[in-house]
Specification:
10% of the residues lie in helices and 43% in strands. By secondary structure, the chain is mainly beta.
Length: 151
C-alpha cells in the first residue's frame, strides 16, 4: 500500500521531479497519453497498472506537476479514500488532516469534484463513490510559482 502526502506526492513520485528522475526512480511508465486542454498540452504517465498517474507539461524540461491515485491501495495521510461512499468524505477528509475539503463542482451523472485549498488536493467521485484524488504542489504567496518539495 502506498501513502500520498499533500504537497509531496506518492513515493517514489515527488512533485517537481523531472522526467529523467521519475524514470530513474521507477523505470519506464506502463503507458503515456497526451491530451490537449484549453490552454496547453499535457503528458500523463501511468504506473502500477494505471493506478498512479503523473502529469507533466509539454516542454522537455517540465516538472511533475500533479500525481493522481486511482487505486484503493493508495491512502491519503494513511486514510483510504478511493471507493469510499461520497457521504463518508467529510469524516475521511478530517481523518486525513484535510478539514477544508468542499464540493467545488457537481456534473450530475458525470461526477463531482471536491477541492481543498489548504492541501492543494482535488477528489473526484462518480455514482456516489470516490474514484480518484490528485495532489498538486504548494504555490508561492503570489500564487504564481510552484514551491517544489525536496526529493
Amino acid at each position: 500500500m502506498a501513502d500520498a502526502q499533500p504537497f509531496f506526492g506518492i513515493s517514489p513520485f515527488v512533485l517537481g521531479m523531472t522526467r529523467e528522475s521519475v524514470r530513474a526512480a521507477a523505470g519506464e511508465p506502463a503507458s503515456i497519453e497526451t491530451t490537449d486542454d484549453e490552454e496547453r498540452t499535457l503528458e500523463s504517465w501511468f504506473y502500477e497498472g494505471g493506478s498512479i498517474e503523473l502529469e507533466f507539461g509539454e516542454t522537455p524540461d517540465a516538472r511533475l506537476e500533479s500525481v493522481t491515485a486511482w487505486s484503493a491501495e493508495v491512502t491519503l495521510n494513511g486514510t483510504p479514500l478511493i471507493d469510499a461512499p461520497v457521504g463518508e468524505l467529510p469524516r475521511l477528509a478530517e481523518a486525513a488532516g484535510v478539514p477544508d475539503l468542499a464540493l467545488a463542482d457537481d456534473f450530475g451523472d458525470s461526477g463531482a469534484c471536491w477541492q481543498s485549498e489548504s492541501a492543494s488536493l482535488m477528489v473526484w467521485a462518480v455514482k456516489g463513490k470516490v474514484v480518484n484524488f490528485t495532489l498538486f504542489p504548494r504555490f508561492d504567496d503570489a500564487g504564481d510559482e510552484p514551491v517544489w518539495p525536496q526529493e
